[in-house]
Design goal:
Helices cover 40% and strands 22% of the residues. By secondary structure, the chain is α+β, with helices and mostly antiparallel strands. Strands 2-3-4-5-6-1-7-8 form an eight-stranded antiparallel beta sheet, with helices on both faces. The radius of gyration is 29 Å and the shape is elongated.
C-alpha cells in the first residue's frame, strides 16, 4: 500500500519546495589567558566585529564599536548583537549571516559569545551553522577566520592546552614524551591529529598540507607533526598498535588511555596519503571527524550558549524594565512580540540539534552493531582456520617465541594474541616494571590463557579448568571470595579466575597471580591484573 502511495504522489513530492534545514558544523569553546580579563574581552570583541564588518557588505553602526546591542540588516548579510549585563556576568553575543558565494540557497550562520565574570577569565565560544535545502551536505569544515585573529592577538586556551593555527613540531625525545603525556591526559578536551614523517630529510609530508590542516581545525583539534626519529618514543610508551609512525596519521580522541581500543583512534597508513587524491580524502575525513567530535563534546549550557537563548534573556530584562518604567502597552507588546519570535527561533534550533543527535546516535549504534558483528565473525573464522591448521599438523601457535624482558611483553601480547587475550590498563601498568622476576613464566601463563584456556571456554569445557595445571607449580583456580568487578571497554566484568603459583608467600618477586575472566561476547580472555597478588583492603 505504501508503495502505491509513493508512486501516486511522487510527482507532487518532486514539485514541492524542499525544506530548508539548519545543520551545525562546528562548536568551539575556550578561554583567554590574560592578566586583565576585561581587556582581553574588549580586544576579542573588536577583532570579531572587524571580521563581521568585512563580511556584511557595509558599515556596522556606531553602537557596534561601543560593544553594545545592535541590529544590522543587509539583504541576507544580517548581523545581530546583544550585550547582556547581569549581577555577576557581562555577556556579549553576535549572530552573523552570510550567503554562500558558490551554492545558491546555502547560508552560513556564525554565532559568537564572549563572557566575563567576577574573578574569572574571559571565556569564548562559537558555533558555525549552515541553512540549506540540500539533501546531502559535502562540506569540509573550516574554522571561521576571526579565530585566527583572536589567536594572533590573544592567548586562546582549551582546557589546559594552547589553541594554535600552526602544527606543533615534535623534533626530539623530550618533546615526544611531552606529546605522549598530552595524549594520555584525561583532561585533554580536543582530538589530537598526529602526522608523522617517513623520512626526516623532508620537513613536511609531500601531499598532506599540515599547515592548512592546522589552520582549518584551529579551536576544535590539535595538529602535531612528528619527526621520524621521534616516533619510537610513542612505540615504546604506547605500544606498536596504538602508536603512529612511518608517514602515517592518527587521530587520538579525548579519553585515550594506554589500553584503549586502537580502532577507536583511527590510523591512516602512509600508503593511503601518498597521492594527492588520498591526501585530499584524508584531510576531509580528519576535519569532518574532529568537527563532529566538537559538537558532541562542547556542551550547551555549560561550554556554550546559543545566541537565541542570550537574546531571550536580554528581551526578558527589557520587558521587565519597561514594566517598571510604566511604558505604554504598545511598547510592551512590541517587546513581547520580539521575545516570542526569539523563543520560536530557539525552539527551532533545539529541534534541529535534537534531530542531529538522534541521527548521530542511530549512526553510532549501527556502526557499533556492524563492528561487533564483524569482530565476532572474524573471531569465529580465525578459530575455524586455526582448528583446520592444527588438524593438518600445522599449529601456528607452536612457533611463538617468548619475550625475555618486561618491555617486550606488552607488544608480544598484542602481536600474538589480539582478538584472543586483552590486557586492561591496570594489567598493562602491572607489567611496566614489576618486582616479579620470571618474565618467561608470565609469558607462558598468558599463552596458556590465550590458547588452551580460551579454547576450552569456547568449546564449553568450563568445568575442566578448575584446578587445571598450567605448568609445574602453576595452576588455574577460581578466585572465590577474592573475585572483584572491573571495567573494560565501556563494560563491567567480574574477575572470577586467577592463575597462581603454590606456597603462601606474598613476596612480589616470587608470588604470581594473573586475575582474569572470559568474555562470552567477544570470546576473549580479559586479564584484569598481574603479575603480583592483588592488593585489597584485606591484604
Amino acid at each position: 500500500m505504501s508503495n502505491a502511495f509513493e508512486v501516486a504522489l511522487g510527482g507532487l513530492a518532486r514539485r514541492m519546495p524542499r525544506v530548508v534545514r539548519e545543520h551545525e558544523i562546528i562548536r568551539i569553546a575556550g578561554w583567554f589567558k590574560a592578566t586583565a580579563p576585561d581587556e582581553a574581552a574588549e580586544t576579542a570583541i573588536s577583532e570579531i566585529l572587524k571580521w563581521a564588518e568585512n563580511r556584511c557588505g557595509g558599515r556596522l553602526p556606531p553602537e557596534a564599536w561601543d560593544h553594545q546591542t545592535f541590529d544590522f540588516l543587509a539583504g541576507g548579510r544580517n548581523s545581530s548583537c546583544v550585550r547582556l549585563k547581569l549581577a555577576k556576568a557581562d555577556i556579549w553575543a553576535i549572530r552573523a549571516d552570510d550567503p554562500d558565494k558558490n551554492i545558491p540557497g546555502r547560508t552560513w550562520t556564525t554565532e559568537v559569545v564572549v563572557g566575563r565574570g567576577e574573578g574569572k577569565p574571559c571565556t569564548f565560544s562559537a558555533r558555525l551553522l549552515v541553512n540549506t535545502a540540500e539533501l546531502h551536505l559535502n562540506i569540509e569544515p573550516h574554522t571561521p577566520g576571526f579565530v585566527d585573529q583572536l589567536i594572533d592577538n590573544l592567548i586562546l586556551m582549551r582546557g589546559n592546552s594552547l589553541v594554535s593555527i600552526k602544527p606543533l613540531e615534535v623534533s626530539n625525545d623530550v618533546s615526544a614524551n611531552r606529546l605522549v603525556d598530552h595524549l594520555l591526559d584525561p583532561k585533554r578536551m580536543l582530538p589530537t591529529i598526529v602526522v608523522t614523517l617517513k623520512d626526516d630529510r623532508f620537513f613536511k609530508p609531500r601531499f598532506l598540507d599540515v599547515d592548512k590542516l592546522a589552520r582549518a581545525t584551529a579551536g576544535y583539534a590539535h595538529v602535531v607533526l612528528l619527526r621520524a626519529a621521534c616516533a619510537q618514543v610513542l612505540v615504546e610508551r604506547l605500544g606498536k598498535y596504538r602508536a603512529v609512525f612511518n608517514g602515517g596519521v592518527r587521530i587520538y580522541m579525548p579519553g585515550f588511555e594506554e589500553d584503549s581500543d586502537p580502532f577507536q583512534h583511527r590510523l591512516v597508513l602512509a600508503d593511503q596519503i601518498n597521492t594527492s587524491d588520498g591526501a585530499s580524502r584524508t584531510n576531509r575525513w580528519l576535519r569532518q571527524t574532529a568537527a563532529e567530535e566538537s559538537i558532541r563534546r562542547v556542551k550547551l549550557g555549560h561550554d556554550l550558549f546559543i545566541f537565541s537563548s542570550i537574546r531571550n534573556e536580554a528581551l526578558k530584562a527589557r520587558s521587565a524594565a519597561l514594566e517598571n518604567e510604566g511604558a505604554s502597552d504598545s511598547a510592551k507588546l512590541t517587546a513581547m512580540a520580539e521575545q516570542i519570535k526569539e523563543l520560536d527561533r530557539e525552539v527551532a534550533q533545539q529541534k534541529a540539534m535534537q534531530d542531529f543527535f538522534a541521527g548521530e546516535a542511530d549512526k553510532d549504534r549501527e556502526r557499533a552493531e556492524l563492528a561487533e558483528s564483524r569482530v565476532n565473525t572474524y573471531s569465529h573464522r580465525i578459530q575455524e582456520l586455526t582448528t583446520i591448521l592444527k588438524a593438518r599438523g600445522n599449529d601456528p601457535d607452536d612457533e611463538i617465541a617468548l619475550p625475555t624482558t618486561w618491555a617486550e611483553l606488552l607488544e608480544w601480547c598484542e602481536k600474538q594474541f589480539t582478538g584472543r587475550l586483552a590486557l586492561t590498563q591496570t594489567a598493562r601498568r602491572g607489567l611496566k616494571s614489576p618486582e616479579f622476576v620470571d618474565v618467561e613464566q608470565v609469558a607462558r601463563c598468558l599463552r596458556w590463557l590465550a590458547i588452551d584456556c580460551r579454547e576450552r571456554r569456547i568449546s564449553g569445557g568450563h568445568g575442566t579448568l578448575r584446578e587445571a595445571i598450567v605448568e609445574d607449580g602453576i595452576r588455574n583456580a577460581a578466585c572465590g571470595s577474592d573475585e572483584y568487578d572491573f571495567d573494560w571497554n565501556g563494560r563491567r566484568f567480574t574477575a572470577d579466575w586467577h592463575v597462581k603459583n603454590g606456597g603462601n608467600t606474598r613476596d612480589p618477586a616470587l608470588c604470581l597471580r594473573i586475575y582474569y575472566c572470559f568474555d562470552e561476547q567477544s570470546h576473549q580472555i580479559i586479564v584484569s591484573d598481574l603479575p603480583a597478588h592483588r592488593k585489597t583492603d584485606a591484604s
